[in-house]
Write a structure and sequence with these properties.
Layout (H helix, E strand, L loop, with lengths): L11 E3 L9 E5 L4 E5 L8 E2 L2 E3 L10 E6 L1 H10 L17 E5 L11 E3 L9 H7 L1 H5 L2 E5 L1 E15 L3 E12 L3 H4 L2 E11 L2 E2 L2 H8 L39 E4 L7 E4 L5 E3 L5 H8 L1 H7 L10
């Protein structure tokens, strides 16, 4: 998000919050080796066994739009606070947390994913999608039952005899179970597992997206990233205990869904390059193509 008319999101870093990061390696009794540290460490510097980047919390100076304040980002993740306004993102009626994901949640089990972007409360979702170029390119509105720490995005270092620590890699994904790597990492953002991930209810989703520019708003449903050469989707089964067979499929356009295809029975949407083979076969069938392909002026997707 950027621009003078756009409210500065809660997790955005400010120029006046920058602190010098004097890093060194110190003896670590627990591992019996060396551990990345500050020359004047305090217990609060570490969380989940990893050193966190120091930053102020004053929100002074100018917003640095491309950077995230590490401490506020962690606070949003741990307390399920909205990344835009800083208030709770938990739905008072359902107890579930609203989450906007810019890309497909990369996961291996149905209903679970991981994310480094904190939740977004329902009232802030339209502004977030309308203001953020990345979300306009592609996003989905979901709710989750809970989230738990999974990994960190971190800069990794190695000991240097003169400079104390030498940068090895930026923004590396380090799992919290990778104890040896954690001792060499400076965490920038917390990554969490999203539990019981569900696309937002259709009625709620329409209410959230209709206030955004319909030509730039992303599709409501996104297929999963390609894994093992196969494309899978996030939509729940059409009926409890049974998956939808996707027998009635159609092409889609930017109005409101981008180019791709969707199932008319369960509303699963696939990007063009992630359409499963069996669905593609139905779409390329001459009869199905002529029957199901919508007109460019048709704005409905029911």
């Amino acid at each position: 998000m950027s621009g003078a008319s756009v409210p500065v999101p809660y997790i955005t870093a400010w120029s006046g919050e920058a602190l010098p990061l004097n890093l060194t390696f110190a003896a670590d009794p627990e591992s019996g080796g060396l551990r990345l540290s500050y020359p004047d460490p305090v217990d609060q510097d570490w969380r989940y066994g990893v050193l966190r980047a120091r930053q102020g919390l004053t929100r002074g100076g100018q917003p640095v739009w491309q950077l995230v304040n590490t401490l506020r980002q962690w606070r949003c993740m741990e307390y399920r606070l909205c990344q835009v306004c800083g208030r709770t993102a938990v739905d008072a009626d359902t107890g579930r947390t609203w989450w906007v994901l810019a890309d497909d949640p990369e996961d291996s089990d149905l209903g679970m994913g991981y994310a480094n972007a904190p939740p977004t409360c329902r009232s802030c979702i339209p502004a977030a999608i309308a203001s953020c170029p990345r979300l306009r390119r592609g996003a989905g509105v979901y709710t989750v039952s809970d989230c738990s720490p999974y990994a960190v995005l971190a800069h990794t270092f190695e000991p240097h005899p003169e400079h104390g620590a030498t940068l090895v890699e930026r923004n590396a994904l380090v799992l919290l179970e990778e104890f040896r790597r954690l001792t060499c990492a400076l965490s920038q953002q917390l990554v969490v597992i999203l539990e019981n991930l569900r696309p937002a209810h259709a009625a709620a989703n329409e209410d959230l997206t209709e206030r955004c520019d319909p030509h730039s708003a992303p599709g409501q449903w996104w297929s999963r990233a390609r894994q093992g050469g196969e494309a899978r989707d996030h939509r729940p089964p059409r009926q409890p205990g049974g998956a939808c067979d996707h027998l009635r499929v159609e092409w889609t356009y930017q109005r409101p869904l981008p180019d791709g295809a969707r199932c008319r029975d369960c509303d699963t949407w696939w990007r063009l390059d992630l359409i499963p083979a069996d669905v593609a076969a139905r779409l390329t069938d001459e009869t199905a193509s002529e029957k199901n392909r919508p007109c460019a002026t048709d704005r409905r997707h029911s």
